[in-house]
TrEMBL record:
<protein>
    <recommendedName>
        <fullName>ATP synthase subunit a</fullName>
    </recommendedName>
</protein>
<feature type="transmembrane region" description="Helical">
    <location>
        <begin position="128"/>
        <end position="146"/>
    </location>
</feature>
<keyword id="KW-0066">ATP synthesis</keyword>
<dbReference type="GO" id="GO:0046933">
    <property type="term" value="F:proton-transporting ATP synthase activity, rotational mechanism"/>
</dbReference>
<dbReference type="InterPro" id="IPR000568">
    <property type="entry name" value="ATP_synth_F0_asu"/>
</dbReference>
<comment type="function">
    <text>Key component of the proton channel; it plays a direct role in the translocation of protons across the membrane.</text>
</comment>
<keyword id="KW-1003">Cell membrane</keyword>
<dbReference type="GO" id="GO:0005886">
    <property type="term" value="C:plasma membrane"/>
</dbReference>
<dbReference type="InterPro" id="IPR035908">
    <property type="entry name" value="F0_ATP_A_sf"/>
</dbReference>
<keyword id="KW-0375">Hydrogen ion transport</keyword>
<keyword id="KW-0138">CF(0)</keyword>
<feature type="transmembrane region" description="Helical">
    <location>
        <begin position="79"/>
        <end position="98"/>
    </location>
</feature>
<dbReference type="GO" id="GO:0045259">
    <property type="term" value="C:proton-transporting ATP synthase complex"/>
</dbReference>
<dbReference type="Pfam" id="PF00119">
    <property type="entry name" value="ATP-synt_A"/>
</dbReference>
<keyword id="KW-0812">Transmembrane</keyword>
<dbReference type="InterPro" id="IPR045082">
    <property type="entry name" value="ATP_syn_F0_a_bact/chloroplast"/>
</dbReference>
<keyword id="KW-1133">Transmembrane helix</keyword>
Length: 253
């Protein structure tokens, strides 16, 4: 019986020149290509009278749209496409690691005197590199929409010499913004990686019937983590866009 092999870091499957392609990067690219192709096909088959697939997509979009508007009003429509894209990408990255073959199909190697199986496929969200990249996308999106809405006035949120309190509040805001990167990346990575380790251990001990409830739990956790990541991005962008508006006159009328 092969020794159970659990690696915190993603394993390299092959190289393109000197660039290492890991099993999680391979899956991440697969998810990205799938979403791009699906979006391209769907955009060409869009009809005024929706069919089955279009109904599902419209339900997802309308649900997010209603939720977003309940949080930040009509202006959230500007960054809703990004939020939905993040949700779908994270959701597929979380769920794809539960498919048959993930963790069981790979290359046998000798490590520390033991023969271990290096999987060809690994859930993308179970790699800290992927979750860190997503966190950076979210971070820069927050700053982009903040600057787009307030222009250079957005900097007053971080650099304000009007009073000592405002100055130190700005420093705390800077620390808070960079802390979001750590929070986003480690929360998603920790939950998904822990779930995959749990499944691997359970399957190695009792491979039949017993793992089924854990698969159900991981499907639910994967959905919740994708929703949390997307909603936090939505909330933080809304905060950046709305910053300082409480002291401005209402220009909507």
């Amino acid at each position: 019986m092969d020794k159970l092999h659990i690696s915190l870091a993603a394993e390299t499957v092959f190289h393109i020149g000197s660039f290492p392609v890991t099993n999680s990067l391979l899956v991440s690219l697969t998810v990205s290509i799938f979403l791009i192709i699906f979006a391209a096909i769907f955009s060409k088959t869009f009809k005024k009278i929706p069919q089955k697939t279009q109904n599902v997509i419209e339900i997802i979009v309308e649900t997010f749209s209603d939720l977003a508007e309940s949080i930040g009003g009509p202006k959230t429509r500007d960054f809703l496409p990004l939020v939905i894209s993040i949700f779908l990408y994270v959701l597929l990255c979380n769920w794809i690691g539960l498919l048959p073959g993930f963790g069981s199909i790979g290359i046998k190697e000798i490590k520390d005197g033991h023969e271990v199986l290096v999987p060809l496929f690994r859930g993308a969200s179970a790699d800290l590199n992927t979750t860190l990249a997503l966190a950076l996308v979210s971070f820069f999106a927050i700053q982009f929409f903040g600057f787009s809405h307030h222009k250079l006035g957005y900097l007053k949120r971080f650099i304000n010499f009007s009073s000592p309190v405002a100055f130190f509040t700005g420093i705390l805001e800077i620390i808070s913004e960079f802390a979001k990167i750590i929070s986003f990346s480690f929360r998603l990575f920790g939950n998904v990686f822990a779930g995959e380790v749990l499944l691997a251990v359970v399957i190695s001990l009792v491979p039949v019937v017993v793992p089924l409830p854990f698969f159900g739990l991981e499907i639910f956790v994967g959905f919740i983590q994708a929703l949390v990541f997307a909603m936090l991005t939505l909330v933080f962008i809304n905060i950046a866009v709305s910053h300082g508006e409480e002291v401005e006159p209402d220009r909507g009328h």
